[in-house]
Structures are given as structure tokens and as C-alpha cells.
Amino acid sequence: MENNNILTMEHVSYRYKDAKQNEYVLTDLNFTFQKGLVYAIKGKSGSGKTTLLSLLSGLETDYEGNIYFRERELRQFDLDRYRSRDIGIVFQSYNLLPHLSAAENIILSMNVSQYPIPDKKEKAVELMKRVGLSEDQKDRRVLKLSGGEQQRVAIARSLSYEPKLILADEPTGNLDKETEREIMDILVDLAKQEQKCIIIVTHSDPVCKRADIVYQL
User: Fold this and answer.
1) What is the bridge-based pairing of β-strands 5-14 and 32-34?
2) I need a surface site. Which of 20, 104, 133, 184 has the fewest CB within 10 A?
3) Helix (H, G, I), strand (E, B), or coil: what is residue 109?
4) Are 180 and 40 in contact (CB under 8 A)?
């Protein structure tokens, strides 16, 4: 039987380097994440949500316990390659380059990942359509797009090298309720239709209600 676990945390604890010996931000976390499901990570400010994403994305490696990606401990990976090929990251503030067009932002991600794609512009358009953007918008500067459209570009960018795991940091935090629902439709569809694992850090109750599993910090 296929193991659907893509990411596993076993007894993970973390404290900042300058913290006291017993001052942990995260303590003894045991979380499992599977393909095809949407997870919400919820907690009040200061509970360690952003720190957790830093651990899962390999930006912080000085943790106690183990984090396994596809049954291999994360610290054994080339973490630059892990971030540019194995996981996609979506930010609250979109993190797009404003002087580039929508398609150029997506193509830049392909170039960084060195993912072998014969026609990158065609692939960028395909990805934009997957997240509900039109081909007419491919050459539009991202600053000319609405917040919801920019977040769709950011999601398309995160899909440019077809990762199975998407980490999203407050992806609807800057959006109105209707646009939040539309973005969640996209993320839920990616999990259900494409068997991706979607992990969302959020304060939003509507986002949590759309998740399959909610982990509280």
C-alpha cells in the first residue's frame, strides 16, 4: 500500500539561539502531512507559526527531533535544491518582482529551479490558466493586477516546477472574503485534483473550515 505521507515531524522542538535553555518556541511537535490533503496551522501571534514554516522549508535546521520529507531527514538534503524543486512557497505579500510581467515572474522561478521545460512561456500561460488567469494577463506588469490576481500569479509561480508540497504563509491575509474563497478554491483543488499536500499558516477561521486537518499551536 502506498505511503501517502510526504512530510513528518517527530518530537520537534525549537528555541532561538539566544533564548534561555527552557524557552522553546515550539515543543515536541508530532505532525504528519499527506498528499491530497489541505492542512491549516493555526495559533495566536507568537505561537511559532512562521518559525514552523521556516523549519518545514529548511531555512532553520537547528531543531531538536526529526523532520522527514519522503522518509528522509531534511538535514540530509541539499536544502537550496529542496526549496527550489521539492516545495512551492506562497507568501501573504506575494513576493513578486513588480517590474516584471506575470509570465516573467513565473518563468524566473523556472530558471532558478533549473526544471527542464522546453517552452517556458507556454508553460507559464498553462499555469496561469490553472489558477484562473487569462492568457491576456501574461504580459501585464504585476503592479497592474489586483491583490487576488497577484496571489494567483504567486500560486502559479509556486507550481512552476510541479512540487508535491505547497507551503502557504497567510496566503489570504491581504484579501477580501470573496477573493479569499476563490484562492482557497484553487488550493483545495490542487490538493484534491493533483494530489498535492497544501500546508497553510493562517489566522482565518474560513480558511480553517476549508482545511481537511487543523493543527493548533
Assistant:
1) antiparallel
2) 20
3) helix
4) no
Share of the chain above pLDDT 70, in %: 99
Helix/strand/coil for 17: coil
Out of 3.90.870.10, 3.40.50.300, 2.40.50.100, 3.40.50.720, select the CATH number for domain 5-216. Answer: 3.40.50.300
* DSSP annotation of 70: T
With beta carbons less than 8 A apart as the criterion, state whether 148 and 186 touch: no
With beta carbons less than 8 A apart as the criterion, state whether 155 and 187 touch.
Answer: yes
Q: How far apart are alpha carbons 216 and 135 in whole angstroms?
A: 39
134 backbone dihedrals φ, ψ, rounded to 5°? -95, 160
Q: CB–CB of 74/58 below 8 Å?
A: yes
Residue 22: the pLDDT is 85
What per-residue confidence (pLDDT) applies to 47? 87
Write the CB contacts of 144 (distance below 8 Å, at least 6 apart in sequence): none
E strand or H helix at 140:
none
Closest to 178 measured CA to CA, from 200, 213, 137, 206? 206
pTM of the model: 0.93
Separation between Cα atoms, residue 157 and residue 105, nearest integer Å: 7
Domain ranges, ordered by start, for the chain: 5-216
Residue 86 — φ and ψ, nearest 5°? -95, -30
